[in-house]
Amino acid sequence: MNLDILVIAVHPDDAELCCSGTILKHIALGKKVGIVDLTRGELGTRGTAETRDEEAADSAKILGLHIRENLRLRDGFFQNDEFHRLEVIKAIRKYQPEIILSNALEDRHPDHGRAGDLVYDSVFLSGLPKIETSVDGILQDAHRPRLLLQFIQDRYLKPDIIVDISDHMDKKIESIQAFKTQFYNPDVEGQQTYISSPAFFESVIGRSREFGKSIGATFGEGFTSRKLLGVDNLFDLR
Questions:
Q1: Owning domain of residue 48
Q2: Is residue 232 part of a domain?
Q3: Which of 76, 164, 209, 210 has the largest CB neighbor count within 10 A?
Q4: What GO molecular functions are on record for this protein (predicted)?
Q5: In this structure, what CATH number is given to the domain that contains residue 161?
């Protein structure tokens, strides 16, 4: 299946935290959107890889994703090297997306920045026909998306573009709460972590309010780009 937007995120729940409103908005517009998680988040303090799988599947239903798959790379230990680039290239060529959204290039968690760089390099290499990849014995076509954006995570970064998600904030929160073991939930026992505190969840909502306010909306999600962004005419801007 060819997708309009492919989100490539290193941990299950990264997409929900940072760009699920944008996912919901574009699915509502009739676009085909999917997520490829690089790892199962197996090093997370709370829950297990199996519970993360279940939570990711529950969230996928809430979001209405067209596909969600997991590459099962090693959480915490994947590298931006030939093997891992080829795995990401295969996913890009499999779904032929126009747009890719990926992890922040700089963040508190070292996996995030490393994944952002991995996807950035893989997007370029995916467009080179002399790099041959195959899935189930079938040679893949080279493909380079026309746009790659990085979502903004725990560390504040000035966005290059903000998407108005005001109509989709409730569903965004629902998709995050599908990860019951990871975030604040008084009904789930477990060691408190940086992301399981009530303050962290409130900060996610606060960030969306901040980005929304900056464009005259109620809620927004911000993205950065390593290339300049253009529009057909000034009236497409708000």
A1: 5-226
A2: no
A3: 164
A4: deacetylase activity; hydrolase activity, acting on carbon-nitrogen (but not peptide) bonds, in linear amides
A5: 3.40.50.10320
CB 179 within 8 A of CB 13: yes
In three-state secondary structure terms, 27 is: helix
Tokens of 122: 């893989």
d(CA 189, CA 47): 10
Residue that has been written with the tokens 């005259």 in this structure: 216
Query: What does pLDDT average to in each consecutive run of 10 residues of the chain (238 residues)?
Result: 98 98 99 99 91 97 99 98 99 99 96 98 99 96 99 97 98 96 77 83 96 98 97 91
Unique residue bearing structure tokens 């604040």: 184
CA 235 vs CA 78, 159, 238: distances in Å: 43, 20, 7
Q: Find residue 223's DSSP bridge partners.
A: 151, 161
Query: Positive or negative CA dihedral for 113, 172, 70, 119?
Result: negative
> What is the domain count for the chain?
1
Q: In what order do the strands lie in the sheet with 5-9?
A: 67-73, 33-39, 5-9, 99-102, 147-151, 220-224, 161-164
| Residue 231 placed within a domain | no
In which region does residue 58 sit, left (phi positive, over 0), alpha (psi from -120 to 50) or beta (all else)?
Answer: alpha
Element (H, E) at 14: helix 14-28
β-pairing verdict for 138-139 and 99-102: unpaired
235 lies in some domain: no
pTM of the model: 0.95
Determine the length of the chain: 238
Q: What beta strand segments (E) does 124-188 contain? A: 134-135, 138-139, 147-151, 161-164
Amino acid occupying residue 85: R
Check: CB of residue 105 under 8 Å from CB of residue 117. Answer: yes
